[in-house]
Amino acid sequence: MKKAPEKFRFAAMAVDVPVFGLVGEKLYCLVSTVNRPPHYLNKFGFLGGMIKSSETAEEAVCRVLFEKGNIKDLYLEQLYTFSAVERDKRNRVVSVAYIGLVPPEKVLTYKQDEASFKPIDELSSLAYDHDEILKVSLTRLRGKLSYTTIAQFLLPKSFTLTELQTVYEILKNTKLDKRNFRKKILALDILKDTGKSQEGVQNRPATLYSFKSKKLEELNLVI
Amino acid sequence: MKKAPEKFRFAAMAVDVPVFGLVGEKLYCLVSTVNRPPHYLNKFGFLGGMIKSSETAEEAVCRVLFEKGNIKDLYLEQLYTFSAVERDKRNRVVSVAYIGLVPPEKVLTYKQDEASFKPIDELSSLAYDHDEILKVSLTRLRGKLSYTTIAQFLLPKSFTLTELQTVYEILKNTKLDKRNFRKKILALDILKDTGKSQEGVQNRPATLYSFKSKKLEELNLVI
DNA sequence: GCAAAAGTGTTAGGTATACACCCATGC
DNA sequence: GCATGGGTGTATACCTAACACTTTTGC
């Protein structure tokens, strides 16, 4: 594969990937510290890096997450391409942003020197245009929650209906009726009863469910 | 603005823009002939071109559509970024694809040497990865039709309810009940009666409506 | 037995669907 | 007066939303 003619190769192409995880009542996002004087001093930013000439954008995302965050095997989807001329004040960098989602256990056990999960309400004034990327990400997440099975990627393999309901409540910032939520979600026929129950809880153990399909599915109904 | 360091500038960044318009019962798309031996011989392809160092992707789209197709002032939205390494067999070119929508009169009056509107069922075996871009475009269009006011950009400023219904029927490839469609669309409170009616038609003249908002709005209900 | 979360049904109001005939206009 | 598409209402089935108490478990 030849390179493009020099005159067209003015920009670098990057990927940036906010990785989200939900623990308890809080949404977390993976960030690392960005220190690039003079413009970006001790700010948080998502993991990101340059796309290589042999890679697709998605391959670059996987490589960057593994190299810089030791994260792999997660749900990824392309979010949007950010191309504002001054989005990186140092150079022209066009960024293809992706969203990553991980289940709670990955957030809880995460231990790396360079990156960590922070509650999103503690993220403001991020490096580059990452404030905007965060905003677009959350809008996308909220939207897809309503008409797809994307919630599965924020949950453990098996989970209780209350946990699933919490995903909706936190991300949509709303309170749902337990009985109605259960009726609706079970009627969608996307879950299966694992036959198991919670163990070691102090209250009545809840039935554990899992998604019938491990892929993102579109729903007919809106939750 | 400095250029990115040379080692990162391996690829060219392009935009590609299928522009759609609906006339009668057919969806049309703007294409031009691509002749780039040895890989692309006399194929159709969407309008596209390289992003310049001073431009955002959207600015490049506007410039390219105007320069190569003499089209401006249309609805545009970013579709997806296509980055397969071999998507352009000649060089590494990453493309940020957009969708454009124009009203029927722009399709009907379109006359340019280099580009023309073709019915989409006549488009196959397009240049580059444009077959895939077309597929993704149509999926997006169909999806957004259901929960946004995107239909407005495929219609004249004022239109009949039957014309609006036809947009849904053609793009979703379905037949809708006239009475139910009218009830539903009027209940959404997104249209206003212009007070005018069709003229010069051989049947009872239909009331002309327009959208209250000229921007893309999200709907609560699904059509 | 108490604390904590799980689990479960009914009713009323609203929405979606199915369906057929008269109306206004031009020729 | 006829051909053409415009415009309208109702009844039924379904879905949605509101609402509170009993069950199971660990301690």
What does this structure look like?
In chain A, 26% of the residues lie in helices and 30% in strands. The first copy, chain A, starts with 11 loop residues before the first strand and ends in a 12-residue tail after the last strand. Chain A is elongated. Chain A is of the alpha+beta class. In chain A, the strands form two sheets. In chain A, strands 1, 2, 3, 4, 5, 6, 7 and 8 form an eight-stranded mixed sheet that branches. The model of chain A has no long low-confidence stretch (mean pLDDT 93). At the A-B interface, strand 6 and strand 7 of A face strand 6 and strand 7 of B. Chain B binds a DNA duplex (27 and 27 nucleotides) through helix 5.
Describe this structure in a few short sentences.
Chain A is of the alpha+beta class and 223 residues long. Chain A has 5 helices and 10 strands; from the N terminus they run βββββαββαβαααββ. Chain A is elongated, with a radius of gyration of 19 Å.
**Largest interface, by Cβ-Cβ below 8 angstroms: which chains and how many residues each?**
A-B, 34 and 34 residues
Largest β-sheet summary of chain A: 8 strands, mixed
Structural class determined from secondary elements of chain A: alpha+beta
Query: Please, what is the average pLDDT of chain A?
Result: 93
**Morphology call of chain A:** elongated
* Helical residue percent band of chain A: 25-40%
Alpha-carbon Rg of chain A, integer? 19 Å
What's the tally of helices of chain A? 5
* End-to-end separation of chain A: 47 Å
**Which percent range describes the beta-strand content of chain A?**
25-35%
Q: SSE order of chain A in H/E notation?
A: EEEEEHEEHEHHHEE
- The parts of chain A where pLDDT drops under 50 for at least 5 residues are none
